[in-house]
């Protein structure tokens, strides 16, 4: 994997105070995770110890130090989704994908994450797959959606 | 263009108004996140395509969220000279139809949700009026927007523009009065005057804590620093609240304008909007608006030519709830981990990069332009004494109209939930509303009159918070809710201070123990102690308020905690370690429903049957007549489908076993195990006998009558449960080693003491409830009036019962329906059931009532007999009175009351009385030494079924009065456990355990077509073939149907 873009991203925030979080966010957006080498580069270019960069990278939940799958699945477990049975969506996905929350499937297609509230509370339980919002989800509907992905329709 | 004068602003307004009200038809689609999640983008595309295809001269537009998220995608259509019309729940298909009508110059009135004839311009204190619908007769029946219950009580200040403007068009914002307040503040007011106005208005922080905004601004203004900052806190982390997102997506300029005015008042030169990462659309919308404001000279250098400079940047959160806390938020903007620090000093003095900083929530900023425009007195005139203005609430969870509602402070909670929110879906009972997110609490139904403002919510143990209102119904478990929030706060605790980091974790451990059935006495006290420690000693508000959900649920729902701890029950059926799967949990004998269904789905019918029989000595009979509470809470009901026919599948497995001749293995008696006598051979007695025999005891069942099986054998009609089924069941029970002695009446042929004398070490009384209750009306002894059980018994034994032409059955239970259907079959010409309440309240099984009606039974509701009239010593007619339903009684049903002077006479040939039964305890000798209740039942310890006499137990209907086969079996099984303990010298106490997991059965693969929502109907004999015979009505599933029905199971047992 090429890390050419890392330098460019750091450049964007040159001279700005407190750009660390933003830089890591842009790197994460580019590579879907924070490659070790990229973090080292950030530390070197900002003149900060790597430990300080790592502390930020591990504090915030949006960052991942492990590569993620092609599709990020966010299962909302906010209060509104929870009382409407959002948990069962997570169970269903864990079972059908054979991974736990926070893990990525062996074929690197899916990464499963649970999230507390995506702000779609009125239409819960919410599941977001690859940026597409699915409202009022339940295990049966999920089964159908996953089949679409399995068949390559999506 | 750059706005440097009032004229420029007026110019922009003119252009904006053209965008708002173009000369052609305008079709706006709500494209905020809620819309997108329900397919608004597809609707937009379809509309645009149709407009193009049909050659309609129309402008397509995007807008934000109108608040009624439940009804997304929302589309609104503005035709010049007509009212504005709102369409809800649009689909691409409906879009095509709509455009076709619009092309004809007409609306689709039938698809419309509401019509709008006026729209408020809050900042300008005026209404924009649309023409009435005289020009559009097709809209006559469409309700007015302001009459919709959801909107009728709302007052929009903060959400003034959402859904009315294109958020990407700054001129439309200006057209509705935007940036005029900014112009006024920057050119006509001194900073101190602005602060004075805000202070006078009484505006308080909308982030939840409610700190007076003017006071905060003044403190920041007065603080010394090289530079100053303003920050907008849009880190809307409270799960259940999403109004900030909606505002940023639908009206970003209102936030920016508020911030600029605030910055001017405070003396800040730089600003930040800290938005959470989970809101990609809001970030995009805000970034666009910031660039646009700069382009128009409303942001950046020399704003509106006033000489005031301000730049605003976006800082994106990265997924940390604690960053909503102001000092943590500042740390995060500075590029550090978002950990809070102790206050004071407050950010007003030492904030971002050590400089004085003013942080306000999105909604606080949005209020500012309105207050500047309309004046402080206007704002202070709305709301309650201490809480001014309005509050935006997100109504979510178990509520019909989910969405964003803005109401004046002080509105009663009841109004929010029931009038605006439309109440709880599916007729379920309201249980609580959770406000304030993880820092808030649960407010119970008893406090529904509470007037929602900062003070009242705090008094109830909750907080205003960011305005999330999560409604919970009877299916929500409050222990689970508390556990949910503690899971959240434990995950989100930044870990800096010990009380929060460790305390939330320990509290969660205890809650998890309770929710998983490991709760102990003392846990509640421990929770309370920990809660107060965490509350008092945490560094920031995250820890300081984290115990609130626990404390309020303990305060208002302590009983639910106790149910979990003592009885390992979760009344709402949520805690999965306790209930395992709802079907199994709800089964009185805890049948492993998911396992047996999974076996059927795999074609393993014998295995399925063995799973059923493992806990149930009547595995075949239950498939015919069980009242199947397992189906009541089948998860399939929650995924938009029908419950599985668990009873139908059980019947299939049982019939298979019968055909295949599957019999249980004979169990030899275990040496040293005692003799036990069981009195009565109904389901309770035989269930106990079967279990005790399997434990190695020598069991003798004494049956007073000639046939075995109790009610099952002689009261349930042949067309529901054929005798051969019961014969097979009893054969199997005998194989287990149970001896049954018929025609032996204990009490007459043998006394209880005789039994002990003969070496029986324990006695179980399971004599049922066979004595019919009386009507207690004159003439009851007349010939032609009979008891239902006696009638059913005679018919089942093959005796002739002459009924005559006209028969009335009195009662509403299963015995009444059975008697009526039997009467039809033995020659009753016209059979009527008289019931004093309504059909909906009949305790009989729904399916049986339907079957009776199909066969021709007439059901007369709200009728009660008053007198039996005879001629020549025989029944001639029945005098009845009409009833009406009055107040609710202690059973939660409305009490039937006779209507005065409504008596009428029914000429009849027979009356069958089925108004209930009680145990016939006349067999007991005078000195039996047992306690007998007023309802003539045997008094036992309900936990163990032990009577007052050592060694004597009682079970089934003799203890409870008439119940169901499943409950009787469960009662018998409990008695067996107690008798076993008694005989083994162990303390006879009941141990409550959670419902355990079922044995694992591998799930089947389903294709998409196999995902079916509707159950397979049980095939029944055609009505015309049922007349005059007692053939079984329900024919049972074919193998193909059973396989398909079983494949519908959602497998709740799998984790």
Fold and architecture overview:
The complex is a heterodimer of chains A (154) and B (1055). Helix content of chain A is 46%, strand content 12%. Chain A is of the alpha+beta class. In chain A, a hairpin with a 2-residue loop joins strand 3 and strand 4. In chain A, 43% of the residues are buried. The model of chain A has no long low-confidence stretch (mean pLDDT 92). Chain B has 1055 residues and is an alpha/beta fold. Chain B has 39 helices and 32 strands. Chain B has a 5-stranded mixed beta sheet with strand order 2-1-3-4-5. A 5-stranded mixed beta sheet of chain B has the order 13-12-16-14-15. A 5-stranded parallel beta sheet of chain B has the order 19-18-17-20-32. The longest helix of chain B has 20 residues.
In short:
The complex is a heterodimer of chains A (154) and B (1055). By secondary structure, chain A is α+β, with helices and mostly antiparallel strands. Helix content of chain A is 46%, strand content 12%.
Secondary-structure topology with pairs:
The complex is a heterodimer of chains A (154) and B (1055).
Chain A: H1 4-12, H2 20-31, H3 36-46, H4 50-59, E1 71-76, H5 79-83, H6 86-97, E2 110-115, E3 127-129, E4 132-134, H7 139-150
Helix pairs in contact in A: 1-2, 3-4
Chain B: H1 6-20, E1 25-30, H2 33-37, H3 40-53, E2 58-63, E3 75-78, E4 84-87, H4 92-103, E5 112-116, E6 118-121, E7 126-129, H5 149-152, H6 170-175, H7 180-188, H8 191-201, H9 213-222, E8 229-234, H10 243-250, H11 252-266, E9 270-275, H12 280-295, E10 311-316, H13 326-333, E11 357-361, H14 362-374, H15 376-380, E12 390-397, E13 403-408, H16 413-420, E14 430-435, E15 441-444, H17 454-459, E16 468-473, H18 478-492, H19 498-515, H20 523-537, H21 541-545, H22 548-567, H23 576-579, H24 582-586, H25 593-601, H26 605-613, H27 619-625, H28 646-660, E17 675-679, H29 683-694, E18 698-702, H30 711-714, H31 723-735, E19 738-741, H32 752-757, E20 760-765, E21 771-772, E22 785-787, H33 788-796, E23 806-810, H34 814-825, E24 830-834, H35 846-855, E25 858-860, E26 863-871, E27 874-888, E28 894-898, E29 904-907, E30 910-913, E31 917-918, E32 952-954, H36 957-960, H37 965-983, H38 1023-1026, H39 1039-1046
Parallel strand pairs in B: 1-2, 8-9, 8-11, 9-10, 12-16, 17-18, 17-20, 18-19, 20-32, 22-30, 23-24, 23-30, 24-25
Antiparallel strand pairs in B: 1-3, 3-4, 4-5, 6-7, 12-13, 14-15, 14-16, 21-31, 26-27, 27-28, 27-29
Helix pairs in contact in B: 3-4, 7-11, 7-14, 8-9, 8-11, 10-11, 10-12, 11-14, 18-19, 18-22, 19-20, 20-22, 25-26, 25-28, 25-39, 26-28, 27-28, 29-37, 33-34, 34-35
